[in-house]
Design goal:
There is one protein chain. The protein is of the alpha/beta class. The protein folds into 3 domains: 84 residues, Up-down Bundle (Four Helix Bundle (Hemerythrin (Met), subunit A)), CATH 1.20.120; 198 residues, P-loop containing nucleotide triphosphate hydrolases (Rossmann fold, 3-Layer(aba) Sandwich); 142 residues, Signal recognition particle, SRP54 subunit, M-domain (434 Repressor (Amino-terminal Domain)), CATH 1.10.260.30. Helices cover 58% and strands 8% of the residues. The chain has a 7-stranded mixed sheet, sandwiched between helices. It is flat and about 70 Å long.
Length: 459
């Protein structure tokens, strides 16, 4: 997501940084390129105009043109305006300030991901807030829609409203609320029907359900991949029923990203959550400042730390770290490390959260850094005997052939893994030998292979 926009904006910023001073013409030229990049990313034209005007008003001033680092100052202004455009600093939480059971209405077009999002929300509320959730499908249009939600409810380990054939969406909604009151539920998630396009029947149905349930939140679910159409959908729903928040799905795709930049300005409603994958836990809070940082190549370290703390087993990680420092790390431990990394998602996604990675993105892509590699490496280790994992030195030609056949890989891939492991253990032995004082005195060069750490320093 945002890759093309990020690449173009960073190209503009690199040129700004390279200039010692800026004049009004330099700023105007840079803003023209920013404008084209935003339009190419499918950002709505009125939003682009407003964005450029705000940046220009702040950038064409004495404090920028005479500052120590004018290029950096302009980048900071673009960053500040982008955060404002995306909704300001900090995530906007789902509003649960209402008497239980709290109704939450999910609306949107068919195929936007409403039903999947309902399942993800149910899991999120149950695990994070320890709430008692009831899922109810009001979709009587799409075949098997109610059965799909029932299956998602089972996966999230929450109840779903029993299906009664022949009821209207409003009747189902009322039954859901009655059941929730009677059985002591905290939250009722109401998944409405969608259409392939906005029509009067759809809007009338949603209005009727909204009037019957008085939801604390009316969440519009939109597919980020649809670009400008997502913005038009948001405007239509907001005008008809009053949207209180937006959930953008498929934010992990290769969409241009303009919809996210346009949503707040067009609807006035904040983006509250984003879907970043198919799994039920792939739903994240939307932090405008972090998204702006990733678009502008500044990374999202806070998000990376949060992701790590949520997915990595702390006790296991500490145990592995201790073994590394003692030089007792084997392939069994390496396999555990691979599992920990896989829990955090795709490697490209993790690396995208690091500052400055945008500049070496091409090299990273060429290196084929993907979770598929991790899975292949895990399969190779799983095909070894326990003795081979503990003592990799015994793995010779015949064993390599057997391991490659058992893991569905090649001997070359087995060799590559063993070499990678050997290099890792060499570095760990050097760390152990040097100790903390030695590392501080000699720096990282002490860990490099012989010849690499001894290069002459440039004058």
């Amino acid at each position: 997501m945002f890759e093309a926009l990020s690449d173009k904006l960073n190209g503009v910023f690199d040129r700004l940084r390279s200039r010692g001073t800026l004049n009004e013409m330099d700023v105007a030229e840079a803003l023209r390129e920013v404008r084209l990049a935003l339009l190419d990313a499918d950002v709505a034209l009125p939003v682009v105009r407003d964005f450029i005007t705000k940046v220009r008003d702040r950038a064409i001033g004495v404090e920028v043109l005479q500052s120590v680092s004018p290029g950096q100052q302009v980048i900071k202004i673009v960053n500040d305006v982008m955060i404002e455009q995306l909704g300001g600093v900090g995530a906007v939480p789902i509003n649960l300030n209402a008497a239980a059971p709290v109704p939450i209405l999910l609306v949107g077009l068919q195929g936007s991901g409403k039903t999947t999002t309902a399942g993800k929300l149910a899991l999120r509320f149950r695990e994070r807030l320890k709430k008692k959730i009831l899922l109810a499908s009001l979709d009587t249009q799409r075949p098997a829609a109610q059965l799909q939600l029932q299956q998602l409810a089972e996966q999230a380990r929450v109840p779903s409203l029993p299906i009664i054939a022949g009821q209207t969406p409003v009747q189902i909604a009322q039954r859901a609320m009655d059941t929730a009151r009677r059985e002591g539920y905290d939250i009722v998630l109401l998944d409405t029907a969608g259409r392939l396009a906005i029509d009067e029947a759809l809007m009338a149905e949603v209005k009727e359900i909204r009037a019957a349930t008085n939801p604390a939140e009316t969440l519009l679910v939109v597919d980020a991949m649809t670009g400008q159409d997502a913005v038009n959908t948001a405007k239509a729903f907001n005008d008809a029923v009053g949207v209180t928040g937006i959930v953008m799905t498929r934010m992990d795709g290769d969409a241009r990203g303009g919809a996210a930049l346009s949503m707040r300005a067009i609807t006035g409603a904040p983006i509250k959550l984003v879907g970043v994958g198919e799994k039920q836990d792939a739903l994240e809070d939307f932090h405008p400042e972090r998204v702006a940082g990733r678009i502008l190549g500044m990374g999202d370290i806070v998000g990376l730390v949060e992701k790590a703390s949520e997915t990595i087993d702390q006790a296991e990680a500490e145990k592995l770290a201790a073994k590394m420092m003692r030089g007792k790390f084997d392939l069994e431990d390496f396999a555990q490390q691979l599992k920990q990394i896989q829990k955090m998602g795709s490697l490209s996604g993790i690396l995208g959260m690091l500052p400055g990675v945008g500049k070496i993105k091409q090299q990273l892509e060429n290196a084929d850094l993907d979770t598929k590699i991790l899975k292949r490496q895990a399969a190779i280790i799983a095909s070894m005997t326990m003795k081979e994992r503990r003592v990799p030195d015994i793995i010779k030609a015949s064993r390599k052939k057997r391991i490659a056949a058992g893991s569905g890989t090649s001997v070359q891939e087995v060799n590559k893994l063993l070499k990678q492991f050997d290099e890792m253990t060499t570095v760990m032995k050097r760390m152990n030998k040097l100790g903390q004082k030695g590392l501080m005195r000699n720096g990282l060069s002490a860990l490099m292979p012989k010849g690499m750490g001894q290069q002459r320093r440039p004058f």
